[in-house]
Amino acid sequence: MALVTEHSRHGNNPFRILSGWCRHGDVEQNVLALNVLLLGDRQSGRSSVGNALIGGEEFQTGTCISGTSMTTEHRLRSRNFQRYFRRQGAESDLVLRVVDTPPPMPRPKSVHELCPEGVHVLVLVVRADLPHNNTHLVEQVETLFGPEWRCHALLVLTHADHLKEAGLQPAGYLSQTSDWLRALAEGVEGGVLFLENSCDWPSIRGRPLRDRLLRLSARNHHRALTVRTEVSL
Ligand SMILES: Nc1nc2c(ncn2[C@@H]2O[C@H](COP(=O)(O)OP(=O)(O)O)[C@@H](O)[C@H]2O)c(=O)[nH]1
Ligand SMILES: [Mg+2]
């Protein structure tokens, strides 16, 4: 099928309908495009989570060398998941536009340039095996996006393989972790997801994350959050 025209997109509405043709005649394809921002400390696993979301090896990952992070610039990668879900009885594509950010926090202007229509979902990435890192995350996200950010956020706890090795179950882990992380887990509308970097990562691990993200955005009627460009962190 060749998709040629876009005939419905207005304001902050991330849905659009593409018209095209195939040998069976004219067709229309619904497309939902969501902007996703990865946030977290260096080495928390943001780029790995981005790869899981996209289902590829698009973002560079790895251990940082002499304190320098692998991710030094904002990076946008997008992927179209064809016929990913049904909306109002029709099949719809899901386009994920994922922005990876350099630590400790993104530059508001860069986020605005990459996502001028705003951010639909914030993915907060924290290492499950180092729960005392990055206690300033909440403060910083609130400064960037204002008090509404919790409605658009989900928490991803990486390095869950280390929990398994220590014999900890997710529920038990959350009841024993540090106060700030437990408060964050309870406060974000999208809930918590545990991820581990195993051999089927990233293509399979990404599916539950994409589903969760889509449900969260739908709960917000796919409204986007605008980054406050006047703040500096
Ligand atoms: N064992 C384990 N390693 C992980 C996991 N997630 C990420 N890593 C590794 O941690 C390092 C940092 O990950 P990266 O995604 O580059 O972190 P970033 O600096 O936040 O972007 C890399 O070597 C990853 O392979 C995980 O869930 N388990
Ligand atoms: Mg990175």
Series of secondary-structure elements, N-terminal to C-terminal? EEEHEEHEHEHHHEH
The DSSP helix count reads 7
Residue ranges: pLDDT <50 for 5 or more in a row?
Answer: 1-11
User: What CATH architecture would you give?
Assistant: 3-Layer(aba) Sandwich
**β content, as a range?**
25-35%
| CATH homologous superfamily classification | P-loop containing nucleotide triphosphate hydrolases
End-to-end span in angstroms?
46 Å
What proportion of the residues is helical, as a percent range?
25-40%
User: What's the CATH topology label?
Assistant: Rossmann fold
Q: Are any ligands bound, and if so which?
A: guanosine-5'-diphosphate, magnesium ion
Class by alpha and beta content: alpha/beta
What's the shape?
Answer: globular
Gyration radius over CA: 18 Å
Report the biggest beta sheet as strand number plus sense, adding barrel if it closes.
Answer: 8 strands, mixed
Total number of strands: 8
Mean pLDDT: 84
CATH class term = Alpha Beta
The total number of structural domains is 1
GO molecular function: GTP binding
Keywords: GTP-binding, Nucleotide-binding
Organism: Cottoperca gobio (Frogmouth)
Protein name: GTPase IMAP family member GIMD1
Short description:
26% of the residues lie in helices and 30% in strands. The protein contains seven helices and eight strands.
How does this model look, in words?
The protein has 7 helices and 8 strands. With 233 residues, it is an alpha/beta fold. It has a single domain, classed as Rossmann fold. α1 packs across α7. The longest helix is centred in the last third of the chain and has 14 residues. Guanosine-5'-diphosphate (GDP) binds next to α1.
